[in-house]
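Sharing a chain and its predicted structure for anyone who wants a worked example. Both blocks are below, sequence first, tokens second.
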Amino acid sequence: MSDTEMEDKSRGKDLEKEGADGLLPQTPNIVTKDHVAPDPFARAKMLMWMGINTLATVFIVFCNKAIFSDPSFGQCQAAFACFHFFITAGTLYALSRPNFAMFTPKWVPVANMMPLAISMAMNIVGMNLSLQISSITFYQITRVLLTPTVAVINFFFYKKTIPRLAAYSLIPMCLGVVLISYYDVKPPPPPGAPIKETGALGVIVAFGSVFVSGVYTVWVGTYQRKYEVNGFQLLYNQAPIGAVVLLYVVPWTDKFPALDKAPINVWWMILFSGVLASLINVSQFFIIGGAGAVESTIVGHVKTCLIVVIGAFTGGRVITDKVALGIMLALLSIFA
């Protein structure tokens, strides 16, 4: 065999080892599910995060209610929302760092984010005020009106419709809230007394809060499509802006307690509320990323039912048959 033939044979073997582009075979740059070993504990981890999210959401409602029921912090709704916004911004910043890399930040101009940040601030402050002056059961039940509110806003401003059966399911929901609004309304309690029933002002604030939440919810979807960001990238932009905006509002709306007179247990509850807010944000990452739409919806329904039921039995008052009927109609309709 000549030297030329030996060189050609050797070159042929090398080409067999190389790819068509002349490069040695390498691991694919794009890693798909076929290249990643399935996590045998994925289901257990998802259930764990769902449980954490559910418990943190339930606890934060009752924790915040206890904080606002204290006379020292009865007029600190904006400051409390500002505190939560800073907690949220810090949590999202940490989760976006390379050590965690749970999402990639995407910057949106501050001027463009300002309307959404202001609506978010109004949404949270309104929810805090509603929680303060209403019973927990009424506060949570009125939150289910967010679904029909969003549907109405989308219909009138964006010409979007929902299926007819879905629209029919909203009727008992609204009827249930009307029953609770009418039969749960009582005269306001004496100053400083715990709120066990909902007054007329509580009804007005609750419905106003739901309307603001509906506008905010619609805008979130609009901003996501316009700037091509996911929910956490959007929240990463708006949380610090909302916190700074509220810093300018707090001196005009809030009345701070004397630091030496505020009960120490309330300060611990405020810290605990911040921890719960962080847990809700972190767990939401895993639920949205790993759970389907059905599972996410079920988690939301479970949280609503738990808050309503626990609030009804711990509110310190007897639930009348008409209020109970309203609760049942509202809760059953969310599963329809």
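Comments welcome. The mean pLDDT is 79.
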